[in-house]
């Protein structure tokens, strides 16, 4: 795979030692970070004989690629998106994803993964349909992807446990290990006790993880109390054996204290999705209470249908601002915490050896242009600690994904000078317009209405 050497850069490692280097170098060999430090060695005499690419890191920041812990491939961004969650799911989301074909799902994934990569996301935890198409798109474009199906009861015409097993056997560990397959449950209102038990059993047998929506809306809690004997969604998931360190529970907005205790007790990971939850009017997650109990919290953008953007820099800013506003406390949602959630916490939840810059870790790295549109101006050169804190503030509160210049995943450059190398971006854009126009006609003709809640 070769070697990449980046010199004269600023490095924000986000590791346990809170390593910050300026000026500095980083060396990649094959798919891993080989070395990094203050003073670059003489690479011409180190005995390496493979191909080497050199990148000048002057006025650039290196940091771990962002990990989107709750992601859905998107095809219907900006369409009829002013409805409450349940109504939106019934009227737009489910008809749209029922109408998918392998070809349209692959196109949507290429588009979604391209926008994620260009804004600095190197790993997505993507729950969607047509996983063979998603795996093919991830392999082509170069992103790291954890894929899961949209499992629900048969009458909802989504996916089955058998679908997810087939996807696991066909694609788990593909694309040089960049693609892994987890089980995925749409949510408890589209399930029953038997399905939950089957899912837990299958998850154990395959030795894989689970991606699930929990406690996203008050309507979900009301439905769950009726459907599952006056229990919360967290309690139902716990009783079914679905919680644990290999589970990512998305949203978790409406939690009781006992719910939080169960999440902590089982070491279940939580994805905080502040932008999505705000847009559809579902509320604000109890981030502080979760963190205080030791729950590993990452973050995700959810789907563009309910957020309109794959930009995780935007998500960090929204998450911090909402926590500060809700609790009237400017000490909450510190930039350092937001950056940890968007990188190392997400990687830990997914079992990915990335999320930090350290020797031996996967080379999932983004290079940010510190001169981009004066987003990082002013910026101290010294002392080092002041430069680090100012950079962290700029990253969370002052910039967006357009500052990302280069993206490296698994040791390969996949975005260079803001161009995604694995696709023809203009071709994908024009195809998406036509595919969506056709999809609207198709999904409207096949729409299935469920009772409003």
TrEMBL record:
The lineage of its organism: Eukaryota, Fungi, Dikarya, Ascomycota, Pezizomycotina. Keywords: Hydrolase. It comes from the Eukaryota. Residues 62-414 form the Amidohydrolase-related domain. Pfam families: Amidohydro_1. It comes from Anthostomella pinea. One of its GO terms (molecular function) is hydrolase activity, acting on carbon-nitrogen (but not peptide) bonds. The keyword Hydrolase applies. This is Uu.00g083320.m01.CDS01.
